[in-house]
Amino acid sequence: MLTISSADWNAWLILFLFPFVRILAWLMADPLLGNKAVPTQVRVGLAMTMALIIAPALPALPQVALLSGDGLLILLQQIVIGVALGFAIRIIFAAVELAGQFLGLQMGLSFASLFDPVNGAQTPVIAQLLTVLTVLLLFAFNGHHLIIMALWESFESAPIVASPISTRGFMMLVEWGGAIFVTGLHLALPVAAALLTANLTIGMMTRAAPQLNIFAIGFPISIGVGVMVLYLSLVYMPAFLEQFLLRGVSVGAAAMRGFVP
Fold first, then answer.
1. Of residues 48 and 220, which shows the higher confidence score?
2. 155-165 burial by CB neighbour count: b if 16+ within 10 A, else e?
3. Is the separation of the CB atoms in 241 and 134 below 8 Å?
4. Which of 1, 26, 162, 185 is most buried by a 10 A CB count?
């Protein structure tokens, strides 16, 4: 007669639960699948499917009780590791949105807003345009494959062990957070420079001819110049975003390794 002991149940639960928690934490923090437009049932189902695929290929896991101190420590570690990868990818979209927010303000389109499902808030149309473009480029570059591969490799580079969480991963994510401002301003620089030149030109025109209505000619010129320069700069954006995406995935993978001593 086949008998199953509590130790067998515990071993089976450990084999599935630990990778499931890491994958689910990544899905909750991911900017694409972690937004409010994706139902929670979809994310849980996808995490369960991926965990069932990954679990048989994992190395030997520590045999600890799930409700023990070591078991809770491992669960917390898996949550932190999974969130690290999603947060590193979210920085990419935050930088793009910052560039769009800045351009919308400079062009006078900050009042024209649309609902952004990634952040669950109203964002200017320029920021929404750049965000959608980034999503399309991510799939065009097979970025989703790179992210899943980084998650898969994290089970080897950051194995499931009962050890304290290291602080190196937190420092890597904090340093990577500075890329929001650097990359955001880098993306907005061509349009911002053109708008600065246009505003200086309009200022000199109104100074030379005070009878000109700056509000009647200033807004159309600013919007026209901004849209034209943005259209011309879109040619160079895919290569730049591809490198930025590769950096984000590599930082996320390094941060996941940094949480394991």
1. 48
2. beebebeeeeb
3. yes
4. 26
- Asked if residue 64 belongs to a domain, the reply is yes
First to last CA, the chain: 44
Contacts 24+ apart (CB under 8 A), 246-249: 246/146, 247/179, 248/88, 248/89, 248/91, 248/92, 248/176, 249/88, 249/89, 249/143, 249/146, 249/147, 249/150
For the cut 80, the answer to whether the pLDDT of residue 12 exceeds it is no
Cα separation, 113 vs 101, whole angstroms: 10
Encode pLDDT of 56-102 as tens digits: 887 777 777 777 777 788 888 888 988 998 899 889 888 988 888 88
The answer to whether residue 225 is domain-embedded is yes
The pLDDT score that the predictor gives to residue 206 is 74
Could you list the residue range(s) of the whole structural domain that residue 87 is in?
Answer: 6-258
Nearest to 147, CA basis, from 30, 260, 55: 30
* Residue range 17-45: mean pLDDT, rounded: 84
Residue 1 domain-assigned (yes or no): no
Q: Are 260 and 159 in contact (CB under 8 A)?
A: yes
Domain count, the chain: 1
Cβ–Cβ under 8 Å, residues 24 and 81: no
pTM, to two decimals: 0.82
42: Cβ contacts below 8 Å, ≥ 6 apart: 33
Burial class (CB in 10 A: 0-12, 13-18, 19+), 7: exposed
